[in-house]
Design goal:
Shape: globular
Strand order of the largest sheet: 2-3-4-1-5-6-9
Structural class: alpha+beta
Number of helices: 7
Radius of gyration: 17 Å
Protein name: Hemin transport protein
Oligomer: single chain
Length: about 210
């Protein structure tokens, strides 16, 4: 029987925030998909635990997926930001070019290995959730971010849904209003899955506190 291994880690994590992307750099990315651990707090609290970051680039049958992984002082992944079709690609490329690449063994995993790691993480209370956000830099040192819950394009919603399905992550994103029938269908599905709660489709500026 396969042995459940620890979740991905970065063994060379440095105990300094100097290596992290600055809040202004992350805010310039536009709409991104935020993956966070509720055990650490809200959508932004994972960044408060991070001391290091690495760029991840995966190629599969659906194309290229890019993300930035943030690690705490123990080398455990505590926060992830994923590129969406709605993000600013040029700024993303400049940002990840300054980051070290994620170790190959961390993200090149088979389906079985991902399932075992997911199970091990859930047993340790390390479940993940996702949310589409627009980050904004704030003046306060103790809380460098504010964030708005963002809507995404139909293609962005497909990317988010595929990632959630493959990694067993809870969460959904709201689809931006447009005239395309596909987006309307996605909005309907999202509304149905949330028990017809209209507040789930509301885009509002929220202050995410520690």
């Amino acid at each position: 029987m396969p042995i459940a291994r620890p979740l991905p880690s970065l063994s060379h994590a440095r105990a300094t925030r100097a290596a992290l992307p600055r809040p202004q750099q992350l805010a310039a990315l536009g709409t991104v998909l935020c993956l966070y651990r509720p055990a650490l707090g809200n959508e932004l609290d994972g960044w408060q635990h991070a001391v290091d970051a690495a760029a991840c680039r995966q190629v599969d049958s659906d194309g290229v997926r890019e993300s930035i992984w943030f690690f705490d002082a123990e080398g455990q992944c505590c926060w992830r930001i994923c590129l969406l079709p709605d993000s600013d690609f040029l700024i993303w490329d400049r940002l990840v070019a300054r980051l070290p690449p994620l170790p190959m063994e961390t993200h090149e995993l088979g389906v079985g290995e991902r399932l075992w790691r997911r199970l091990a993480g859930r047993m340790r209370g390390e479940a993940w959730r996702l949310s589409a956000l627009r980050l904004q830099a704030a003046a306060a040192r103790e809380q460098p971010f504010v964030a708005s819950l963002a809507t995404v394009s139909a293609l962005g919603a497909e990317v988010a849904a595929r990632l959630a399905r493959e990694e067993g992550i809870d969460g959904r994103v709201a689809v931006d209003d447009c005239c395309c029938a596909r987006a309307a269908a996605l909005r309907t599905a999202s509304t149905t899955s949330s028990n017809n709660n209209p507040s789930d489709m509301t885009t509002s500026l929220v202050r995410l506190r520690r």
